[in-house]
Amino acid sequence: MTPTHFSFTSAFILGLMGLAFHRTHLLSTLLCLEGMMLSLFIALSLWSLQLNVIPFSTTPMILLAFSACEASTGLALLVATARTHGTDHLQSLNLLQC
Amino acid sequence: RLLAWMGLEISTMAIIPLMTQQHHPRAEEAATKYFLTQATAAAMILFASLTNAWLTGEWNISQISHPLSVTLTILALALKIGLAPMHFWLPEVLQGLNLTTGLILSTWQKLAPFALIYQIAPNTNQTLLITLGIMSALIGGWGGLNQTQLRKILAYSSIAHLGWMIIILHFLPNLTLLNLTLYILMTSTMFLSFKLSMATKVNSLATTWSKTPPLAALTMLSLLSLGGLPPLTGFMPKWLILQELTKQNLPITATIMAMTALLSLFFYLR
Description:
The complex is a heterodimer of chains A (about 100) and B (about 270). In chain A, about 70% of the residues lie in helices and about 0% in strands. The radius of gyration of chain A is 17 Å and the shape is elongated. The model of chain A has no long low-confidence stretch (mean pLDDT about 75). With about 100 residues, chain A is mainly α. Chain B folds into 2 domains: about 1-95, no CATH class; about 125-270.
């Protein structure tokens, strides 16, 4: 694995771990999601630069647009949760336990 | 492949407003959990295909050849549709929604990931698929035993059904599609009959006898069909899958699957 590949792989895995093991705030989960998307964007740009494939040069922009949409959806859900539950602490998300 | 990822994300985003239409805190909590899991899975799919592109130079999702990428893609797709061991979001999310939205979630949302799964079927790791399938069937059977809420029962039954579908994927992908179609039909029947009788707990199902006896009979029949008893349609995919498994010299797997079907049947019949 080249150092570039290793760096963005580790960035993605770090974001994934942060997403999986978030403890108190829901916002940190959204931040980790954005971090993962960003590492994917960097990887995609570097890949299309390195291999000189022309048809895929627009994909980083499309990825960026979609990750922005995802982030806005997540934020809207966060606002809705804050409106009904009061905080965004994870302990309050236990209404659906059996 | 980029279009696949975009399609998955668009479907996720489209379902979220549907889920939050009911301004109940449970619904919004369910929507939040659902969104998080689906977005994570979509990002993992993209990451797997990107890793594959770096390592082998192949961007088409049906020709992923690196074993690590294939494993990661399968895991991400399993998270999307709710296979064990990544099934933890499914009962809670289904519980928080009303019945129509839950119907759309269980049936329509499974179509897109299954299209992807069907495409990458020839390259997959057989041991991983069998492990996932057996675990799903087991957890789907055991988890549903103590439930009284109807939507959670349906969630666990869908986990078990998905386990059946995944097991046969490596050998005969067309059987997976058949199982998926029949599962969609049966689950839609169940959801619609529950919606008509407005029942959300097992106790309130008992009142349907006095209201509309034909509907109660239909519900019982479709429950039995979900369980997979011989004279009903639900038995056909299970029989074909078991036949295919024994043809490939995997009798132990076939026995385990048959026994987990018994588990689900037990909690259907309550």
